[in-house]
Each structure stands twice: as C-alpha cells, then as structure tokens.
Amino acid sequence: MVERFHRPDGSIGQVHPLRVLADDGRVLLAWLPAGTPIVGSRLVDGRSMAEAPLDQRFRIPRVPVPDFWHRTSTLRRIADDEWSSVWWFFDAKGRFTNWYVNLEVPLGRNALGVDRIDGVLDVVVDRDGTWRWDDEDEAEVAIDAGRLTREQLDRLRAEGERIGALAERGAYPFDGTDTDFRPDPAWPAPQLPPGLLAGLSPRSGTGPAPAPR
How many domains does the chain have? Predict the structure, then answer.
C-alpha cells in the first residue's frame, strides 16, 4: 500500500510505500522504516524546501524525485475520516522517541492506498504528553501562496487542538500503545509500485526525513 500526498491542483507530490499491519477499512496502521525508497519532491531549481527562504517555499514549482525516507522509522495510524495521521518515531536503534502528528486533508482511498493533502501545520507530542505546534510560520505563508485556504487551516488547527487534548490526558494514541513496537527483522522494506520511479531525475537526499509538503 502507498500513501500519496496530493497538491491542491490535483498533482501528486510525495509517495510513501507502507507495510500494512492492520486495516479495518477505516483506520490503517502501517510501517515505514528508515531507508525505504520513496518518491520525494524538490523545488524545480534543485533545492529542498528547507534550503529555500520561507517566502519562496510554496511559490516555486516542485518536481518529484527518487529519494529515501531518512533518519526515523515511523509507525503510522491513518484514519480515513480524520484530518491528521499520528506517526510514532523510532530512532536507528529502534527506540521510540516521540509522536509526530501530520495534519492532513483526507481525500479517501484509491486502488493503491490512501490519498491526503499535507496540511503544512503539524503537532509534536513528547513522551510525557506535552505538545507544541510545528511549522506555524510555513502554514501562514502557504495560505498567502494559495497552497491552503484559511478555512482548511482553521479545520487543521481545530484538529491539532483535538490531538493536543488527547495528549494532555494521556489518551490513545498517546497512552504508550505501540511505543514498544518492534518490526520483524525479516520484513523487507516496503516497495513502491513498479515503474513509479522511472523517468525521475536522481536527486536522493541525505538530510532529515522529508516533509510531504
């Protein structure tokens, strides 16, 4: 299965292959280990998002590139009707570090997996349940550039507040569930659909795990 991140114009940005661990038709639990090949994205001039000044990040066209999921392995809970997905982060030694809540606009499923629009604004939840917003500055710039609407951001912020309240109470998924997760060492890395990387310019990165932006 893959998770595809769409842009508002309908084009597809990043594509992440996932190993499905559980799926009841509404909630998907899946695994993406560090080092897995993905379809990433770069600015058309070759820079990563982080390398561009804030006022340029959502105005310069982007192109898909072959890449790898870097640094942290992630266990992901993706609910079809929720404007977020919860990612458990694990370091190179397999130790749980924290939760990262990717705020997203859900677009349903397709034959290959799930479709989402990355909401730019995110939430970081520490092991003790404290939480904070991430990328608030990018979210405002994304609105100015037409990447998100104000109404979408308001809905995403409300979702972040809901997630924060769960974290403060230590409620699922922030109650310790799956923080001891260990993948079977015999599992191969998830695979992208055949041919998806064909024709893309090689520009794999070595930096931190790429955001779906």
Answer: 1
